[in-house]
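Forum: Protein Structure Q&A
Topic: Joint prediction for protein chains with partners

I've read a bunch of threads here and the consensus seems to be that you should model interacting components together rather than docking separate models afterwards. I'd like to see that in practice. Below is the full input, 172 residues plus whatever partners are listed. Could one of the regulars post the assembled result?
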Amino acid sequence: MTGISDKERQTLLSMVEDVAGPDVREVAIILLTHKGELTDEVISDELGIKLNQVRKALYLLADLDLASFRRERDKTTGWFVFFWKVHPEKIRDLVKEKQENVLDKISVRLKYEQGNMFFTCETEGCKRVTFQNAMELDFICMVCESRLESFDNSKIISVLEKKVDQLNEILH
Ligand SMILES: [Zn+2]
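Posted by a regular:
Agreed with the consensus. Here's the joint model:
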């Protein structure tokens, strides 16, 4: 009915919970299980969650582009009724966006690793420093006062390169 796989459904729900919390997850489940549209009142009744909590959850889902609504005026009461619909296929865009963010971060880190030489005292808890900083410290660790020796970051670089390759393959 929704045109997404079980795996995508799982991804969707865990992402919704990560970003927006368990209440929003519950609301997403209800919307995914029902065909067509639901009003916020029906969702509130079914979940036993307060109407304003349900509305908050729905607006969060709309913010993530995962749900949308249309409104209609109730002829008897004159109030607006909101009909909500879930868009699970948008999860693909969301996952892609997330992976692109990760790729950006890793690429920046990789450039930093490739563009610097590092020095370390090898003491646990002390941090490695760049060549520039090591020079300023006369190659003595600021914390433990041990000698700073050159640090081989080629392993870090190859791990990062592998990750960049993997993500590039998934994304492009
Ligand atoms: Zn140290």
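The chain has a mean pLDDT of 92.
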